[in-house]
Amino acid sequence: MSVFIIQGFSDIPTLRIPMFGIFLFIYFLILCGNLIIIVLIWRTPHLHTPMYVFLVNLSFIDITSTSNILPKLLAILCTKQKTISFIGCIAQMYIFMCLSCTEIILLAVMAYDRYVAICHPLRYFALMPLRQCARFSFLSWLVGFLDPTGHTALTSNLSFCSNNYIDHFFCDINPLLHIACSDTTIITMLSYFEGTLLVITAFMLTLISYIFIISTILKIKSTEGQHKAFSTCTAHLTCVSIFYGTFICLYMRPKSSMSPKQDKYFSLLYIVLVPMLNPIIYSLKNEDVKNVLVRSIKKYL
User: Fold this and answer.
1) What domains are there in the chain, each with its CATH number?
2) pTM for the full predicted model
3) DSSP the chain
4) For residues 275 and 66, is the Cβ–Cβ distance under 8 A?
5) Distance CA 140, CA 181 (A)
6) What average pLDDT does the chain have?
7) Which one of 148, 198, 263, 299 is most buried, by most CB atoms within 10 A?
8) What is d(CA 135, CA 25) in angstroms, rounded to the nearest whole number?
9) Residue 169's pLDDT is what?
10) Nearest alpha-carbon partner for 196 in 93, 104, 98, 293
């Protein structure tokens, strides 16, 4: 099998041009929103703290993940050329899985950062120096890029016979396994085991961090103090809720409720909604970022 044919949204051909315009606009918003966050943090010295270094990593993941998928989808909608090479398909799948794994780990690390900031504020810079922040970031990327290597190697060695139609809008592992004509038991078990282990571990670390955070906040006597403490983690908590909500809908639904058409739209939510909302949430719910953004806008007006 040298090429695959991505079906995309061919079941609604009359909406091809409007969908192209909508996805192009969304891609523009994602790029601009996340680039603004990166530039603001890079150009503002007092934002050079662990929390914002992790946010830069998160914005970079959002830019890269959408750039891995949306340009090809836009090309399919614009030109009707639905083919993708075998190597290109495997590479797209690998990059998507790498960035998803990295984001899961990074969100857990950010939860730990908020735990240290709220539960141990006087020791924050001792426990989370920039060197430690760099280690956590590197570890997130390293594990994220190593975790899917086994899935990718096994998937690339599958036989697809004459069936090269992928009923999806990008090369994800489940649609590829669906059209394979060789045994996929090992890959399915590996995906289930590693995926469950990674997601549950990251989720439990995030949950435990927030249990300690909430417990500490409730011990603060003044309402103003509670509000100020909680406001430092509302942006991250909102992003975590959206991420896990869309991720669970996509990958952890009962098999009886799964269908290729539903997977497309749940995937669309995961790929588009999270990267588009992250910069908006961090701009609106984080006072430091909001103030820097407002000052920058006033400066250039």
Assistant:
1) 3-300 (1.20.1070.10)
2) 0.89
3) --EEEE-TTTT-GGGHHHHHHHHHHHHHHHHHHHHHHHHHHHH-GGG-SHHHHHHHHHHHHHHHHHHHHHHHHHHHHHH---EEEHHHHHHHHHHHHHHHHHHHHHHHHHHHHHHHHHHSGGGHHHHS-HHHHHHHHHHHHHHHHHTTHHHHHHHHT---TT--EESSSS--HHHHHHH--S--HHHHHHHHHHHHHHHHHHHHHHHHHHHHHHHHHHH-SSHHHHHHHHHTTHHHHHHHHHHHHHHHHHHSS-GGG--HHHHHHHHHIIIIIHHHHHHHHHHHS-HHHHHHHHHHHHHH-
4) yes
5) 34
6) 84
7) 148
8) 36
9) 86
10) 104
pLDDT in tens, 15-37: 778 888 999 999 999 999 899 88
The pLDDT tens digits for 132-154 are 899 999 999 999 999 899 888 88
pLDDT digit string, tens, across residues 170-229? 888 888 888 888 888 888 888 888 878 888 899 899 999 999 998 988 888 888 777 877
